[in-house]
Amino acid sequence: MNRNITSKIAWCIAVAVSAAVVATPALAADFGPVEAMKVDAKKAALGKRLFFDPRLSGDAAISCSTCHIPQKGFSDGLALSKAYPGSDGFRNTPTLINAAQKAAWFHDGRIGTNLNDVTRESITETYSMNMDMRLMQERVKQDPIYVRMFKDAGYGEPSNGSIRNAIPEYLKTLTSRGAPFDTGKLSSAAQRGFDLFKGKAGCAQCHSGPRFTDDMAHNTGVPENPDIWSDPMRHITFVTFAKFQGIESYMNIRRDVGAHIRIPKVDGSNIGKFMTPTLRELNQTAPYMHNGTSKTLADVVVFYNQGGGKDVNKDPLIKPLGLSREERDNLVAFLESLSGDPLIGPEHVWKDKINVNYVVIDDWLKQRN
Questions:
Q1: Is residue 303 within 8 Å of 292, Cβ to Cβ?
Q2: Which of 283, 289, 323 has its CA nearest to residue 305?
Q3: Helix, coil or strand: residue 275
Q4: Which of 97, 120, 129, 349 is most deeply packed, by most CB within 10 A?
């Protein structure tokens, strides 16, 4: 309960800050490159190895990189994500590129800017990596490479807290670079699309700033993905999540309530709201929407051109756009220009094999670094 209260406070602060940013015209119009974050190199290197290590999951079957694949823009290319073995996910895997700069995490925004909390939930919850952190700590302690890397990074002996800090340090290295939009190499079609984006299409009302997101939750009427309810493996994951989050009548509902879990309103007006996604790296991260219901960027543009979907809580900003076929094509060309160089080099990917055939340390109580 304390964790949920803390997360809610952080989320509310993030929303307030985001609202202030969106309300400032000068900042809302700033679509410049995403600035790289300051990073501790040794801590980030440790976090990178941890990110690609399957021993951080309960049965050592999956790692963070199982769902956040570098070659797919640190997404997974699936409409709905994988999950811990024995279950499947009920939401689309978002990119982690530029994610360390988010104001709120997950499609429902349930955790604010504390990446330590984000890492903890991603590793420990049964519907993600299902790891007992005490077991994880002992696994890491047994690996002599980790013992050295933790010491070199200034953490001392491997610990849960250090793991939850090292992985976020690695995430800070995942910054967009080389996009035509940033390098000034927009095609004429993309430039026309950018003008539409800021004007007639109205996209910039929610997709603002260098990451092209207001970090706020909106209801655009995205239809439900029926696979969540027809596939028992996905439905049981949703039920587990919904029960943990305290969603009422979770066994009977057939929709993802989104941001309602963070700020439940009596009138249900937050049901169906989801965080505005970044528009960076779209070429690498299809399909789209929080539940993967749009296969292509052209599909996304058609969806918004028709005024979004049907929902009683739909944001009043979402209205039919009246874009011609040429205008829709130009808008897609602009969206494609926001994708840069894939982050697949050794500075972002742990290339070495993670060897688990090492001599086990019998008694850690007698060991000293």
A1: no
A2: 323
A3: strand
A4: 97
Q: How far is CA 205 from CA 99, 216, 310, in A?
A: 20, 11, 20
7 vs 11: CA distance, rounded Å: 6
Q: Coil, strand or helix: which one is 6?
A: helix
Give residue 16's pLDDT: 42
Residue with tokens 């439940």: 264
Q: Is the pTM of this model over 0.85?
A: yes
Residues 242 and 133 in one domain: no
Burial of 19 (0-12, 13-18, 19+ CB in 10 A): middle
The domain that holds 17 is classified in CATH as: 1.10.760.10
167 and 197 in a common domain: no
3-class state of residue 111 by DSSP:
strand
Domain edge (last residue) among 126, 155, 176:
176
d(CA 147, CA 30): 44
DSSP states of 31-46 as a string?
A: --PPPPPP--HHHHHH
pLDDT at 367: 62
51 and 147 co-located in one domain: yes
Structure confidence at residue 357 as a pLDDT band (50, 70, 90): confident
- Position of tokens 């205008």? 327
Q: What's the pLDDT at 364? A: 59
Cβ atoms 17, 214 nearer than 8 A? no
| Token digits of residue 112 | 């604010």
Q: Is 356 contained in some domain? A: no
Distance separating alpha carbons of residues 271 and 288, to the nearest angstrom: 20
Write out pLDDT tens, residues 167-213.
999 999 999 999 999 999 999 999 999 999 999 999 999 999 999 99
Q: At which of 127, 146, 176 does a domain end? A: 176
**Which domain, by its residues, includes 252?**
180-336
